Amino acid sequence: MDPSPVQYSSVKHTVIHPNFLHTNSTSHRWAFSAIAELIDNASDDAQATQFCIDLQQFEVTGEDGTSKEVDTLVFMDNGTGMNPLQLHKMLGFGHSDKSSNARAIGRFGNGFKAGSMRLGQDALVLTKCTTSQSAGFLSQTFLKATGCEDILVPMATWDLEGRRLGAGQADLKQSLDAIMRYSIFQACSSQLY
Ligand SMILES: Nc1ncnc2c1ncn2[C@@H]1O[C@H](COP(=O)(O)OP(=O)(O)OP(=O)(O)O)[C@@H](O)[C@H]1O
Ligand SMILES: [Mg+2]
């Protein structure tokens, strides 16, 4: 029998501690190389013809009830976007389907994580493709506040008319709760439900 992952399916998985998000980001000595990771990702998408960077301020309420203005870097491209499976891979480590594309800059499946976590504590990805629109949240704030020992990535998906997909899935309510509580969109979070 050829070797396959199935024959080792009971072997323990490794666990990546949330502190690794910061550790991994220290490969960027300065912010501009981190920004370059996000520009590279947009430019790898042959369909993307526009890329914008904006600085916005959002008012958020902390766990102690006080509100504050948070500086937020917004990166936007008009490429093909991602379906939920692709978004889940993006938020993980080492997944890259670019190796067959000689023109692509990306190779290692790590740039987004290293770059975004160098620029801020939290990254909320909003993406739309031909079949769905999704939110995914890579958040050191959420992981620290909840004492997670592993990296959880809250995700939610809607169809193009705004109907929530996978409503029966156990993780959805918890994912929306995490996004509502810890992301900049807490002010308008009731619209997510
Ligand atoms: N702006 C984007 N639009 C669409 N898909 C994206 C975008 N940014 C990232 N992705 C997807 O997420 C994956 C992971 O991105 P990431 O930057 O972490 O790794 P990579 O670009 O594949 O390799 P590298 O580590 O060399 O940057 C990409 O391979 C791509 O499939
Ligand atoms: Mg990349």
UniProtKB/TrEMBL annotation:
GO cellular component: nucleus
Membrane-spanning ranges: none
GO MF term (any one): ATP hydrolysis activity
Gene3D superfamilies tied to this protein: Histidine kinase-like ATPase, C-terminal domain (3.30.565.10)
Annotated SUPFAM superfamilies: ATPase domain of HSP90 chaperone/DNA topoisomerase II/histidine kinase
InterPro entries per record: HATPase_C_sf, MORC_ATPase
A Pfam family: HATPase_c_3
Protein name (database record): ATPase domain of HSP90 chaperone/DNA topoisomerase II/histidine kinase
Organism, as annotated: Coccomyxa subellipsoidea (strain C-169)
Record lineage: Eukaryota, Viridiplantae, Chlorophyta, core chlorophytes, Trebouxiophyceae
